[in-house]
Amino acid sequence: MNWRDEQQAFWNWITRPQNLQDSSQQIDDHFLPHRALSKVDALGIYNNAYHQRLIQISSELYPVTYHTLGHDVYSRLWLDYLAQHPPRPGPMSLLGEQLPSFARQHAQFGRLPALLDIIELENLLIHLFDQADEPAWTRAQLQALTPEQWPDTRWRVKSDWALMSSQFDLEKYWSQMQLHLARPDARPGETEFAAERISDADQAHYLIRRVNHRMQFQRINPAMMLFLTGIREGQTFAMLCESLSQHFPDQEIASLSLQLLLKTIDLELLYA
Hints:
mainly alpha; DUF2063; Putative DNA-binding domain-containing protein; 3 strands; three-stranded antiparallel β-sheet; 8% strand; single chain
């Protein structure tokens, strides 16, 4: 084995959660002995320290998930995750980019719908924060449209916002968690509250966005969710109005659609 291969082997033994005893013969062949420790035990110190550092960094990226699960359960989730998705070169914010999909497929954590929504929301907050600044479409540009242009107008969306739906009141849970985190004696996994289910039939819709380089999310009504989803899909204004009329037949669609469009512009969600 040449030097490059030895370095790669060393890196793999450090960065992948594993039982190093399975590679004890290879380790023994390529490393010098230590007076007090076996070679496997010595390398295990590096392996453990590396992953504990990653878990610490991830807990700062996902503080709500961390304090929801507690240190031991959270560490188990991340060790399972890192075994399949080891870090790749780039910003540390990419550390958990595959965490939502991994958690959904996990035999244990995939059966906890509130936790899955918490992970998804926290992942979006991380991802959207790093998006590039973009100019926003304005009311002045809307006023410049001629009546003939309105039906076929499509809008591009900015990259610093997203939508999600949940059966849980995430706004209330986030507020409770922020109060918990502000306590000097706060202990991960030891809260007196939990994410409350809205109902089996209903869902809450959330707009997650970056505002002045700070992340926030807010609950939006079903009409706004339908409207923003349509814009993201590239629907024309006429198509948006048609969709609203099908889902909200008792409302005045001309007034509703204009109201939703102005709200979208004021939130600076459209790309100029």
